[in-house]
Write a structure and sequence with these properties.
Blueprint (H helix, E strand, L loop, with lengths): L4 H26 L3 H22 L4 H27 L12 H33 L3 H6 L15
Length: 155
Amino acid sequence: MVKSKRTEILKTKARVFAKHVLKLAQYLRKKKEAVLSAQFLRSGTSVGANLAEGRYTFTRGNYISKHSIALAEAGETLYWIELFIDGGFIKPNSEFASIHTECSEIIALLEKVVSYARQRKAKEEREAEAMHPKRRRRMFDAEEPLQPAKLTLGS
């Protein structure tokens, strides 16, 4: 897929965010919140992993799929962060105070990237249909019904 400035920024932000997720998960484990921190760690690091996988896909559909999964994981991670803030695990003046803003920025970027990719895909499909309007119909409208192949056993 074509690399844009937005996707490069997103890749960098996701990597930095994943490092902060790792540190916060370690901190939460020390506070005896192993179960919540494990789920937070999975969703938080999954954002960057799906972006990395989406970067090397061969079709726009797969690219959109991986980036949509990354968006969903970022949304889940934001939920956990807000829960940790509400539960008092993340203090406003702590080293983890900026993680909410980081996650929100990643979500905003992902929303733009996914939206743009979907628009591009729809445009390409319309253009392909305009160039070859009968191609799709020919695939499904066979003039003669297909006959089952006759199988013969070797003698």
